[in-house]
Amino acid sequence: MAKKDNELTPMMKQFFDLKAKHPDAVLLFRCGDFYETYCEDAITASKILGITLTRRNNGASAGSEMAGFPHHALDTYLPKLVRAGRRVAICDQLEDPKLTKKLVKRGITELVTPGVAMNDNVLNYKENNFLAAVHFGKTAMGVSFLDISTGEFLTGEGTPDYVEKLLTNLEPREILVDRVKKKDFDELFGQKYFTYELDDWVFTEQSAMGKLTTHFEVKNLKGFGIDHLKSGIVAAGAILQYLEMTQHTHISHITSIARLEEEKYVRLDKFTIRSLELVQTLQDDGTSLLNVVDQTVTPMGGRMLRRWLVFPLKNQRQITDRLDMVEYFFREPEFRELTDEQLHRIGDLERIISKVAVGRVSPREVVQLKNALEAIQPIKTACLYAKNEVLKRVGERLNLCESIRKRIAKEIEPDSPQLVNKGGVIRDGVNEELDKLRQVAYHGKDYLLKIQEREQKETGIQSLKVGYNNVFGYYLEVRNTYKEMVPETWIRKQTLANAERYITQELKEYEETILGAEEKILSIEMRLFNELVMAMQEFTPQIQINANLIAHIDCLLSFAKTAELHHYIRPTIDTSDVIDIRQGRHPVIETQLPLGEKYVPNDIMLDSGQQQIMIITGPNMAGKSALLRQTALIVLMAQVGSFVPAESARIGLVDKIFTRVGASDNISLGESTFMVEMTEASNILNNVTPKSLVLFDELGRGTSTYDGISIAWAIVEYLHEHPKAQARTLFATHYHELNEMEKNFKRIKNFNVSVKEVEGKVIFLRKLMPGGSEHSFGIHVAEIAGMPRSIVKRANTILKQLEADNAGVGSTGAQKIEVTKKQEGMQLSFFQLDDPVLCQIRDEIRGLDINNLTPVEALNKLNEIKRILN
After folding, report:
1. Residue 693's pLDDT band (boundaries 50, 70, 90)?
2. Would you state the pLDDT for residue 296?
3. What are the DSSP calls for 168-220, one per residue?
């Protein structure tokens, strides 16, 4: 707790005054060469950073906890605080302590939060770091996203469901919400996001319009195509207000704002993105689709590819353009090699130019920017001469920014240090004064040697030497035998046993020159470097366009590399209702198979006339789920513009992909498996269209058999009969009763994933065959999963009895299921199971004389019983 003002030292009073401005942030307080934290901040920092917690022991501030680290270690410690979800206020010294005798002026120079970070160590180079804002409008919910590290600014509006989809896809690190709407936000989207609450005045249309029009220097927002998105504008305005509050005022690299157009992209809900494992896996050691197809070279390409996978296209022309470019990379190995080689030289052009805009670029990054612009030149030339119209247009739009590139090459040392204040950044020949000072500072020995030689000649003192000490600087040393020859103008400073030391006016002047030279050198270098950075800022829009075009090329080159590596083919894209995949494979599973094992490919044919719904039966572990997922992934990859794992593929464009596969993490929130299934199924049925692709896997497992069959039947019937819901559907089930539907509904066809029984063993062929399956082989699966043999044996006995008892009963009629057991009271006894092994154990236990059994004998007997089980 803070002490009263009159009990505090001036510096601690300064700390508490600054802390009061951002009470919820950890304040890093610059003291000399250290960043210090005090009181509660110190306790927090010591835990997160693993640094020592101590107490102040000087005067009025004694007793306050403190913890600190060297200022040059900021890049190491700051990311740890931000990743731990802390807001961090950086307080720097605003004047040189040498130039003041009073308390050094300090101020908060930056507020770093999880959503507003420029530090490379905080950012993941292949992921965007979005700050989002959500606004609860009257007619729609507004949402906006900004990545300050790249300048990308997006906004949109729609239903809460659409906003949730965007939050899931873009994964913001921090979300701004209206304080009075925080409860509503939590109810809709849960508490998994890092949120920050703002006052309600921030979320007003007037405030937002003012912020946006002032920043973009426009009268209205029509030019950005967002003027009709009232709720989206409010959300975007809240982001700009937050940047001002966190003192991120140098934001000239945010040059435009784009609309998130729902109608441009295939709708993927959060369940589909998760169950298809597009960018993240359900298991920690799993592999996502992104892992398989990401062969990008540049960080911008990596970030763009991640976005493409969760926003597949619906426009045939745009998809075809991407496929044409992938094919061109495929057909033209020389073009591909040249592009690939140059992409390796480019680096993170997007984030470097953003750092230029905020004045936080390092000399090394400036050199990297020059290298990137040089690498773009051969790419531009190759694109202009390419036999592909899209690539030609890319070539025309790439800007070489020659004037700034040449200036950087002329002014900045190629092997510059990371920090400007280390010196050696500006090249020789750029500034005359700088060259002279360097001559003085770094070639001083030559100058002193000339003085020594000259004075030796003029005085005749051959043993004369020039030296230096910390007491009186440079001096001339003369042995006693020559002291009579010393000129009168020399001033004696020190007498030694065998010699005298003198200074001259010339030496004093030189000393002042050399001592001031290094400071002047750094000052001039800083000035020249800052002038260059200011000049570079004018090229921000052109370089951002370059970064975007290069990212496009990188993504499409990545698709070409992946296609060659895994033997993918170009899909045919049209606007029909046909999905015809021949010999399709799962793009992820096929890369995970043991050496020598090949993935078993399958055909899938769906249309709205003959085969709208495929009901797929077959045993567990036969590959039904993999077949469903691979179909969705092939369609999605095709609409992203990638080649696909198949022998041929004709994809009639889909508008939405829905999956109901496996239980989701809502179970951990207390919902039953069945409730989760029904919620997800309802979402599908309420939003499906005839252009959608729907995948249901084992629907109805969470309830009784007859409830499950009834619900599954009703859902399939709805998808077949309802004119607004006739989507292409794959329905995998273990309910063989659903095979009866083929007889009554003309567009439903039965298929099964085949298995073969050889000498009582089941071999999974993983091949899709026409017709339904009537056998589940669940007991065999239990056996290969390691179930104790006695249980497997007993299950087979019960199964045979059930099959005999129910022989002849119709597949859709009610079946009377009874398992014979001894009637020994209501509670089942362990030994009611008719198993010879268990009977033997029973007899062993019954024969024991427990009263006379020693502990050792008891353990031995238990071991014998265990051996019977094995």
Report:
1. very high
2. 96
3. HHH--SEEEEEGGGHHHHHHHH-S-S-EEEE-GGGG-HHHHHHHHHHHHT-S-
Q: Distance between CA 434 and CA 429 in Å, rounded?
A: 9
CA 249-253-259 angle, 5° bins? 105
| CA-derived radius of gyration, the chain | 38
Other beta carbons less than 10 A from residue 437's beta carbon: 22
Q: Exposed, middle or buried by CB within 10 Å (0-12, 13-18, 19+), for 222?
A: exposed
**645 shares its domain with 741:** yes
Six-digit token string for 314: 């619906």
* Highest-pLDDT range among 544-553, 689-698, 777-786, 840-849: 544-553
Q: Count the Cβ atoms, other than its own, within 10 Å of residue 54.
A: 13
Q: Do the domain assignments include residue 796?
A: no
CB contact at 8 A, 586 and 664: no
List pLDDT tens digits, range 467-518: 888 788 889 999 998 888 999 889 999 999 899 999 998 888 887 777 778 7
| Same-domain pairing of 557 and 501 | no
Q: Flag whether the pTM goes above 0.85.
A: no
pLDDT of residue 96: 77
H or E, element range at 767: strand 761-770
Q: Which domain holds residue 320?
A: 294-401+539-566
Assess whether 644 and 727 both reside in one domain.
yes
What letters, b where the CB count within 10 A reaches 16 and e where it falls short, cover 280-310? ebeeeeeebbbebbbbbbbbbbbbbbbbbbb
Q: Who's near 275: CB < 8 A, 6+ residues apart?
A: 282, 629, 659, 661, 662, 664
Instruction: Mark whether 352 and 384 lie in a shared domain.
Output: yes
Report the distance separating Cα 304 and Cα 555, nearest Å. 7
Residue holding tokens 């007793």? 63
Amino acid at 104: V
Task: Choose the final residue of a domain: 82, 112, 142.
Answer: 112
Confidence of residue 463 (pLDDT cuts 50, 70, 90): confident
| Any domain includes 815 | no
Q: Is residue 809 part of a domain?
A: no
Let me know if residue 29 belongs to a domain.
Answer: yes
629 and 775 belong to one structural domain: yes
In CATH, what number is assigned to the domain containing residue 504? 1.10.1420.10
Residues 185 and 102 in one domain: no
Number of structural domains in the chain: 6
- Of the candidates 110, 117, 77, which has an alpha carbon nearest to the alpha carbon of residue 91? 110
Over residues 399-419, mean pLDDT? 93
Q: Is the dihedral of CA 658, 660, 665, 667 positive or negative?
A: positive
Other C-beta atoms closer than 10 Å to the C-beta of 713 total 18
User: Alpha helices of 738-823 — where are they, by DSSP H?
Assistant: 741-744, 778-784, 789-805
The β-bridge partners of 651 are 573, 579
The DSSP bridge partners found for residue 89 are 27, 111
Same domain, 526 and 632: no
| Phi-psi group of 572: left, alpha or beta (phi > 0 → left; psi -120 to 50 → alpha; rest → beta) | beta
Taking residues 438-452, report their average pLDDT: 79
**Please, which residues bridge with residue 650 across strands?**
572, 580
What is Dmax (Cα atoms) for the chain?
135
